Amino acid sequence: MEIPLKIIILFTSVIRVINTSVVINRFDDDDCELDAELVEEIASYENVTKRIMEEIRSNFGEVMYNEYTRFIDTFGARPSGTEVLERSIDHMINLTKHHGLNDVTTEELQVPHWVRVHESASMLQPHVKNIAILGFGSSVSTPPEGITAEAIVINSFDELDKTDKKTIEGKIVVFDAHYVTYGDTVVYRSQGASKAAKKGAIATLVRSITPFSIYSPHTGGQYYEKNVPKIPTAAITLEDADLMRRLQNAGDKIVLHIKMLSTSDTKTSRNTLVDLKGSVHPEKLVIVSGHIDSWDVGQGAMDDGGGMMISWFTPVILNILKLKPKRTVRAILWTAEEPGLIGAQAYLKKHMNDLDNINFIMESDEGTFKPLGLDVAGSKKARCIVKEVLKQFAPINKLTNSGYPGSDIVIFVHQGIPGASLLNENERYFWYHHSEGDTMNVQTMKDVVDCAAFWAAFSYVIADLSVDIPRQ
Amino acid sequence: MEIPLKIIILFTSVIRVINTSVVINRFDDDDCELDAELVEEIASYENVTKRIMEEIRSNFGEVMYNEYTRFIDTFGARPSGTEVLERSIDHMINLTKHHGLNDVTTEELQVPHWVRVHESASMLQPHVKNIAILGFGSSVSTPPEGITAEAIVINSFDELDKTDKKTIEGKIVVFDAHYVTYGDTVVYRSQGASKAAKKGAIATLVRSITPFSIYSPHTGGQYYEKNVPKIPTAAITLEDADLMRRLQNAGDKIVLHIKMLSTSDTKTSRNTLVDLKGSVHPEKLVIVSGHIDSWDVGQGAMDDGGGMMISWFTPVILNILKLKPKRTVRAILWTAEEPGLIGAQAYLKKHMNDLDNINFIMESDEGTFKPLGLDVAGSKKARCIVKEVLKQFAPINKLTNSGYPGSDIVIFVHQGIPGASLLNENERYFWYHHSEGDTMNVQTMKDVVDCAAFWAAFSYVIADLSVDIPRQ
């Protein structure tokens, strides 16, 4: 998952949802008062939700998981703008039809195509040592001969602000902000280069945004400010950040050499829409979604292969089970989420006049580990309906309302559309996130199947209720 | 720590000690019967052991930890045969004198000098993917153009034995044995190349010997059998081993390209001996030890910077505290442990006629995490004395007797010399072992200081007791 700059700026106070152990609720929904009739109607779905979950857990889940594994192992990393991403989209289109659902369409858009060609770094002083780096998406290259310069380790933007420009000028700034939450710490990755460049830095290296490392650098998006020199920027490991901090504290002069080469252009990609048309209100949509693109390291199995797959599976399995809800269930496989929600933004723009028809929008992009419940955005009544529906999924009935439910769907939520993202036991999510460690090894069949079962059954109820999820 | 082939062959059934959670005891020492006088004498040390531990925990431990950190950050990895290892040895000699102990000598020996020059690997079929590799020490190079060949994933030596030679010939064997214990699983690293070569394999890649990975390959020693073709051999990550296993199971043909270049010669290195001479029996030795060399990845902070440092610190702090036991306390900083206990073997050979004077030999080479007690080798009476001494260190009073206490000291133990290695909370030891993850980040000051306090105080008692530790 990714958080674009404008979202970060809008929501720095509430983007703590990503690690479910630190979700901050904005509202207390202990006092829900729904009509007795609606409560009764919701309760009446218990048989069908039980059936959906049982069918997935006992029969179809394994097929789905095997398709998921095969997808990940066949395509691996699927960066925005690449051919492999487009082939993986073709694969999912074919897979949809193969599993009996033909209502699959795509919507083209232009996406960034940033390619990591070569990267290397080493410490030259006080002693020679290789430094593992991983450039951030959209980083500029160094000159061909690389950059050799003294490094200065900086703890925070506050410390940067307080440091004389003369002390920074001509140096490589090493941001050594320790992980607090993703939202708190990711700003050094996403904004660090321009902030340091304004002080005269010639490159930045950023402590990876993770609480734990086995010498693994983590990439991610970053955003240059307008009218500020663009300087190369890359992740380093926790281990090397700590080493440089200790060396600086001991009075050692640190000299680094960095070489980075990347290319950047624009390509065509596609959002993929898989519809199970509604039986009564086909124009009304309950959207379930995940993104099909990934960073260029690891396999993109967790971010967001799992979320994409359980969302894709939702209309497919409901169709197989011949369960046709009143509203259309649309799975969207977003493209180009990682460079900044590019696919979601294109969809929003294209469908701006139809937004009223989106009844509810869901996303899974924070892991498909053991499912716990939902982080819900919307009016109090919307949250209360979700809460009532979740009761029949206990123990998968946790409900939070962080105000930042997911990544791609946030731009819809901020148009007033109610939505929810999957809460799951993702305490180790950032150990692997945007790194070579994001592989099938972090997933288990049981967890992913449980997520898929919950995802499909919950969506079915929302799509079939007699009432729309109210915006007010 | 390292386990040389001959030790593995001798002790495959008992080398489970390394992860303390799976220590298998060979004897039950619940029925110790020591002389009342000796029990009383041991109890009388309680004041002095408390004082030693208190002085280290409150005063000198922090100095030691800072020296340790500075040592690791200054020299980093210290592979056998390198100049940096020799400079790090010089540093420890100077540090000994700086802290007031002048009785420091070195003994020269010839050590292997294997240098990793270049390594790379990629999967060419069924799709192109970079494969992280880390060659095993003493591996031969590939031809300059590399090796391109089909891979076959093999689960065990048993499966290898049962597979037709024709099926293996000309292929790269990928050993995918899952971690059980280090002792059980390391054989694929140490013996896999020759076993596969006998079947006609042209290279081997081995699933890293670790229960957990964030895409981190782990190196280590390996041993070619005589009269068997020497083929290149390297570690791969758990993630890529699992990927190749899944691809093979799905019927895909896997083609790999491997390029490895290394050099190999012999250099002079030194074991370092730091003596606090005994007040009554200076010729009798209580040895405390760890190895100063490391693999060429990471910082060698855990393996075995910590063990080397707490052992070095033992005579140094006793001297500072003006505690001169009856016997000599000798710290030995073994050189060239990683290529196969080369330093320890040279010491054993050189001192073969003085072995009777080694009263007890200790080693810390399995981590300096929270100390738990000792794994003891020796006669029942020896174990019972250690057990009695440990009582005053509770809760650091766990006693096991696996038969394989440590690595370097095992060759002394098998000469009949009683000895012990440090038990500690090292459940994550193999997450970092022989990888880029072996850095100061895995250590904490509290744990290392606690290890040092226990190590020094325990050694003092053993070195000062009125009775020798009995061999029978």
UniProtKB/TrEMBL annotation, chains A, B:
Endoplasmic reticulum recorded as keyword: yes
Chief place of localization: endoplasmic reticulum
Cell compartments where the protein resides: Endoplasmic reticulum; Golgi apparatus; Lysosome; Secreted
Signal peptide limits: 1-20
Any GO BP annotation: peptide catabolic process
KW Signal (keyword) present: yes
UniProt-recorded Gene Ontology molecular function terms: carboxypeptidase activity; metal ion binding; metallodipeptidase activity
SUPFAM superfamilies assigned to the protein according to its UniProt record, in alphabetical order: Zn-dependent exopeptidases
GO CC annotations, alphabetized: endoplasmic reticulum; extracellular space; Golgi apparatus; lysosome
Superkingdom of the organism of origin: Eukaryota
Domain Peptidase M28: 271-443
Protein keywords: Carboxypeptidase, Endoplasmic reticulum, Glycoprotein, Golgi apparatus, Hydrolase, Lysosome, Metal-binding, Metalloprotease, Protease, Secreted, Signal, Zinc, Zymogen
Subunit composition and interactions: Homodimer. The monomeric form is inactive while the homodimer is active.
Family as reported in the entry's similarity comment: Belongs to the peptidase M28 family.
Protein name (record): Carboxypeptidase Q
Species for this entry: Helicoverpa armigera (Cotton bollworm)
